[in-house]
Design a protein that fits this description.
By secondary structure, the chain is of the alpha/beta class. It has 12 helices and 9 strands. The strands form 2 sheets. The protein has a 6-stranded parallel sheet, with helices on both faces. The chain has a 3-stranded mixed sheet with strand order 7-8-9, with helices on one face. Bound molecules: NADP nicotinamide-adenine-dinucleotide phosphate.
Length: 300
Amino acid sequence: MAIGKVAIVGLGLIGSSIARAVQERLPFASVSGHDASAAVRDQARELGLCDGIADDPAVAVADADLVILAVPVGRMAEAAAAMAPGLKVDAIISDVGSSKAGVADALAKALPHHIVIPAHPVAGTENSGPAAGFSTLFEGRWCILTPGVDAPVDAVAALSGFWEALGAKVETMDAGHHDMVLAVTSHLPHLIAYTIVGTASELEEVTESEVIKYSAGGFRDFTRIAASDPVMWRDVFLANRDAVLATLQRFNEDLTVLQQAIRRGDADKLEDWFTRTRAIRRSIIAEGQDDPAPDFGRRH
Ligand code: NAP
């Protein structure tokens, strides 16, 4: 299946990065866009993100072979319903939502007669909006497709090829499994960062100015994650509730183990644990999923 026209609904960090990457890497494809926010549409026009930006989502998706919804998870259903009248019958509809089972259900209900293949590029930053995007965001990162059992094989292959053309590596898995994996690798870390940053700034014995002044001791690395978009993350936790709660239960048990080791002065337990976690950091670098430069590449 050839993809000659791509339409992107939602032109924030992820949508604008896709638009930039398509313009750079798929010069024969045209790209149209829409965003619910008039201010974002104006900004996208100024940035020259797409060949055309439409005020009406149904106009933006007209004639598109591939339509990608890049809106918060809780807004997928309404975005799908709003664009539905303009869709080609054989268009591939996909998304980039950070949770998959709920989004797959919502899209299947909103577009029962279309080819829907949910997807999640596991790439991002703590910034939002059209100016925050960049064309290399997906390079070397994984994009997980979660096609339903009845998804046409050629459409899945076309969507895989699209993400590979943007520089991503593609994996296919069941939506429920995706949600469990991402609860561990993304959603729980965000929850922990949101908690630590909130707790540290509320500790009465330590002033807020001290928390900021001495943040290089570790705190500031959590603040990058905790600066992520509040609306996006509100929706992710509500949509992936069960997997997040199951993972959180396990985390709380492990935290209790470490708490006991500290209280009992169990040096071996602590050292073993920290040795294992250091090895995990090294495997992430070996896999090319982070920069080996010390201190996350900060200049000193
Ligand atoms: P973002 O920068 O906040 O952009 C989302 C855009 O969608 C906003 O401009 C928003 O406008 C617009 N929008 C909301 N509802 C809409 C609708 N019904 N129709 C059209 N536009 C609508 O968010 P993002 O970071 O790009 O995230 C987009 C999606 O990517 C989310 O589902 C998220 O889970 C997923 N994702 C994010 C990351 C990441 O690191 N950020 C990584 C992978 C996947 P308003 O602001 O006016 O609502």
